[in-house]
Design brief:
eight-stranded parallel sheet
Length: about 400
């Protein structure tokens, strides 16, 4: 048995040192409703292209892992729908939606449309499922928002496309499923939504969408200097955004420090009716798109604590460009949500899923044996750097 995250009976944070107090927050989850996962087979075999960072399998690996481990059944695993153009138009411009549909139909666009809509360039290629794949992520977030209207937790690992703009593709994101899910939550009558983003990249599209909406507090922790190079600590948008750019080399003890000293206190103060957690795992060590040093246990700590801060929670995926890291981390997220004990050694059915991964990147050519036989990373801790303490202290000074 491998322990992870806070005690399941209370939101209890492990102290940073023996002299630090243990902070306890009330558990606001709706225990009467079982957590559910939403995914789709559209992600199996769909790729942005052989040289793109999203050429790798991701969601299909998570789906296969949780099934191999016996962690889902017909009641807890749902197939996500494709959002309709009308549903997408709740946020996105109608002409942009039509352009994405045209790109899928023709597998090409005129140069002027490519430039106008960011399609077929700047990391946003035209590929066979260019409309259906992101529309499924959007439809799944919309469905998830409806399903948790009365309470509960949904894990949607294909979600988290937080860079998508109203009329343009951006940062590998064509439609912004977090925005569409939050809009559905607001339409249901909720008026206190906390969006927490721990992806290595700033959640710029979501912040822009809700910059002037006092019903939505957007909090983003990201690596400083990474694309899109926004989200400075002084950026509060219209007053409802908080940004914590972190230096390279962030480790597990620093993540736990941020959780204890910032994420949970601001969540407690905001008192959300629902939390939308963007759980990008490109902050893991050996992810090729960031310079952070985290193991998956500290990400699970965040999930395990944050899901208790509201009676409703939508846990999304996000970035993650190492298929081994994605498969192990997001499968573990589902275990944390359900308080499932993670075995110290994977059964052979789950191990074989990891062994079958083909990834030509230098990190994938010869993965360590423990990457293939276990789910839990070793704790990667260290001293809390003064720079990290200073940034958290400064951000706390902004209040709500």
């Amino acid at each position: 048995m491998i322990p992870f995250g806070p005690d399941p009976n209370q939101c209890c944070l492990i102290p940073m040192s023996p002299d630090d107090p243990v902070l306890i927050y009330p558990d606001k989850r709706c225990d009467a409703i079982r957590p559910r996962m939403i995914a789709s087979e559209i992600y199996r075999g769909s790729s942005y292209g052989p040289k793109h960072p999203l050429s790798i399998p991701r969601v299909s690996l998570v789906v296969d892992m949780v099934h191999a481990l016996g962690w889902v059944d017909d009641q807890t695993y749902l197939t996500g729908p494709i959002a309709t153009p009308a549903q997408l138009a709740r946020f996105h411009d109608v002409d942009y939606i039509a352009a994405v549909m045209q790109a899928e139909r023709d597998q090409a666009l005129p140069p002027d449309m490519m430039a106008q809509y960011g399609l077929g360039k700047n990391g946003n290629p035209i590929f066979p499922e260019i409309f259906r794949r992101p529309a499924t992520a959007a439809g799944s977030s919309i469905l998830a928002a409806r399903l948790i209207a009365d309470g509960g937790i949904i894990h949607h690992p294909a979600g988290g496309t937080h860079h998508g703009l109203r009329g343009k593709a951006s940062g590998f994101c064509y439609f912004n499923d977090p925005v569409l899910g939050i809009l559905e939550l607001l339409d249901s009558g909720l008026d206190r939504v906390l969006y927490l983003d721990i992806d290595a990249h700033h959640g710029d599209g979501v912040q822009i969408a809700f910059a002037d909406d006092d019903r939505v507090l957007t909090v983003s922790m990201h690596q400083e200097g990474l694309w899109p190079r926004t989200g400075l600590i002084e950026d509060v948008a219209g007053g409802m955004a908080r940004n914590l750019p972190m230096p390279k080399g962030m480790h597990d003890d620093e993540m736990r420090f941020v959780l204890q000293e910032y994420f949970l206190p601001i969540a407690q103060k905001f008192a959300p009716q629902v939390v939308v957690l963007q759980c990008g795992c490109d902050i893991l060590e050996k992810d090729p798109q960031s310079g952070q040093m985290l193991g998956n246990q500290s990400i699970w700590d965040v999930v395990g604590a944050v899901i208790k801060m509201a009676p409703r929670c939508l846990v999304l995926g996000g970035g993650g460009y190492n298929p081994y890291g994605v498969a192990r981390c997001w499968s573990g997220v589902w275990a944390v949500i359900n308080e499932i004990e993670i075995p110290p050694v994977l059964p052979i059915t789950a191990e074989n899923i990891l062994r079958d991964i083909k990834w030509s990147h230098r990190h994938g050519r010869q993965p360590a044996n423990e990457v293939l036989t276990t789910l839990v990373d070793p704790w990667r801790g260290g001293a809390i750097r003064d720079d990290v303490r200073t940034r958290v202290r400064r951000l706390r000074g902004y209040g709500l």
